[in-house]
């Protein structure tokens, strides 16, 4: 008898985010069919979050919206943001995953941003639009993202999200070490 499929709802219709979730989760459920579906989920934060806290809030808001408006085994939200550290401005993503009552939050790698890009963000532009202008691309945020452009394609927005998602799955993969409440379907 075949195992029932696992339904995953992603708090975005952006193909990069939905693809990252599918790529990250599929190998974690060998022999199981994964139905991964994106849905519009408002972040409740500006289109370009400018702090770690704002980016985290956006991901958690998207996650909560999905949980309130859909049925699934696993809910996932991804929010891209920007912040500044002692090393300068950078881009990153926050991922939030929920199964049952357990929520796990993770962060992607920290991509340094050129000063000109950061200045444009401070003026209210969104990173995808800034990168499109700087590199002559169109809709890069639904492709390789700033990460793809700034690494000459050696990493992509999707690959950064995939790694963050796999890492954020740790409490579900080893529920016994995290209080035992996050057993996977």
What would you say this structure looks like, in words?
The structure is a single chain. Strands 1, 2, 3, 4, 5 and 6 form a six-stranded mixed β-sheet that branches. The two termini are 16 Å apart. With 185 residues, the chain is an alpha/beta fold. The longest helix is centred in the first third of the chain and has 18 residues, at 52-69. A hairpin with a 2-residue loop joins strand 4 and strand 5. It has seven helices and six strands, in the order βαβαββββααααα. 40% of the residues are buried. The model has no long low-confidence stretch (mean pLDDT 94). It has a domain at 6-112 and 155-174: Alpha-Beta Complex (Maf protein). It is an enzyme of class 3 (hydrolase). Homodimer. Residues 11-173 form the Non-canonical purine NTP phosphatase/PRRC1 domain.
């Amino acid at each position: 008898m075949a195992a029932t499929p696992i339904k995953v709802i992603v708090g975005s219709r952006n193909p990069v985010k939905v693809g990252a979730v599918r790529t990250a989760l599929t190998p974690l459920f060998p022999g199981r069919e994964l139905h991964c579906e994106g849905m519009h989920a408002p972040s409740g934060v500006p289109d370009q979050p400018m702090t770690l806290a704002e980016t985290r809030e956006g991901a958690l808001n998207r996650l909560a919206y999905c949980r309130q408006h859909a049925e699934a085994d696993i809910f996932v939200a991804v929010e891209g943001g920007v912040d500044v550290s002692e090393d300068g401005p950078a881009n990153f993503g926050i991922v939030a995953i929920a199964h049952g009552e357990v929520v796990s939050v993770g962060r992607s790698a920290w991509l340094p941003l050129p000063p000109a890009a950061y200045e444009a963000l401070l003026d209210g532009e969104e990173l995808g639009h800034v990168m499109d202008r700087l590199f002559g691309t169109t809709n890069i945020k639904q492709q390789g993202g700033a990460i793809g452009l700034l690494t000459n394609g050696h990493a992509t927005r999707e690959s950064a999200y995939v790694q963050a998602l796999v890492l954020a799955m740790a409490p579900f993969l080893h529920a016994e070490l995290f209080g035992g409440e996050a057993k996977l379907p």
